[in-house]
Amino acid sequence: MRPVTSRRSSCWEPGNEPPVPVRMYHPGGNLMMTTKGKAWRLIAVLLAFVLLAAACSSDDDDDADSGEAQPAATAADSGAEDDDHDEDDGHDHDEDDGHDHDEDDMDDAADDAMDDDAMDDDMMEAELISDECPIPNPSEVIEIDAIGWEFPIITQYAEELEDCEEGNYRFNLQFLDSVEARSAMTQDAATGSPTFELYQGSNAFIGELANQGFLMPLNDLVAKYSDQFDLGEIDEAFWAMASIDGQIYAVPMVSNTMHVFYNKPAMEELGLSVPTTFDEAFQTCRAIIDSGYDIGFLYMLSAGWAWQIEFDSVLGSMGVTSIDPQTGAPNFNSPAGVAAATILKRMVDECAPGIASSYSTDDVQAAFQTREAILGHTWASRAAGMDDPEASTVVGEIEFAPALGTGSGILAAPAYIDGWGIPVGTPADKVEAIFLAMLAATDLESMQAAAEFGLVTRNGVSHPNGPRDAAAAQASLVNGRGADLTHPAAGIARAKLGEALITILDGTPVEEALAAAEAAYLAEAGDQGLLN
After folding, report:
1. Which of 284, 282, 266 is nearest to 274 (CA)?
2. I need a labelling partner for 429 at 20 to 30 A (CA). Which of 156, 296, 320, 413 fits?
């Protein structure tokens, strides 16, 4: 087993779902039809109760790919921080291709079924590792190499995994910068014989891997253990974000979005109000810079995938999706698209020159923790770090507000999840043990502990000492642009947008960048027959 590396925080954590029905598999075992409106209205209500309960139970009075990510390019492109887009021909995962009905085959099938039943009985009768890791203790040591990128709530989930080391599990948890982690996982999976058995990532990245045939569908295991681990408590909208065409590829554990962070005492010293729109933000950022700060409003726009996420969010706040949810026709090379990309360019040029174009998400977090930045926008999962006395010099000073908008009533905020997945090529005799470890680390007790550091996916779970951004996160999730698009060509659009928009930092005019993205998108999506 490789040496355990030191943990490092991530650079990335984490479109709207289409109005047409999307197939989703719910852990109850049935295949359902749902729509964006129904799923997100349900999750909005549930999140409202959960998050408000967390805020009310706190002693602090302060506010607190997705569905169908798309086909990826090639293994050679795996280092790029964007959605890849090869045709996915690995979605048929039925293990039963034997249709002969002679007596020998039937006898063999019966014997296999009896063996499976016996194995299940043995598993049920096996001694559980502990209350913290309530799964059977393997008779032999099982080593699991896990890889991903880290932020506070992921750190907690990693500790939940390590509780299983009281038994015969051994974990090597390798957390890298997200760019490095995504590249490493893609290259590892592409070998067909992965050296890591457990991948952690956002729904967009999980979908990217799944569409290349790199992740195992987990439906059978989810159905098998749903009752025992109350997997129905994880909202179906989150399962949908971890699924493609009804196939589940990850166990959702983190709910995430983006919103405004601000240093309340510093803003009050300057006599400034917290902006709610981009127009207000530009006025405020100029005032902050004029007062002597280098950063007036901080966005993270140093990577192509970051540009794509923020572009989709700003465009979504205008009521426009990057592509048509039904036909796949591009909407981004348009007056609204030019306006959205121009807003982001101004954030770089006017509000954080030389900084927004180079800072990672880790750097953005550190900037708030050290008062280098007193106003900006980043992931809700970073809120817990603001009050970490070991990392922050401004404990209790950072407050939170909903994401900015353009005046339409829709906020420029996405909806994301993070989860665990198992790569194809993992030894078959280890898969169920790995899945059980995933369940042990995401059971009710584990999520109650994780809720101290961010939003979790089980309904009704909160923590009295959870992050103070509950109200801001709730507003951004409920009123934001929603989850990534699930059209078969959406991943290509995300990839091409990320590749093109990042060139704005090198001086490419906004209009040219969008035109280049559109041409590349139409060519590739057209070649794959994905446009109607």
Report:
1. 284
2. 156
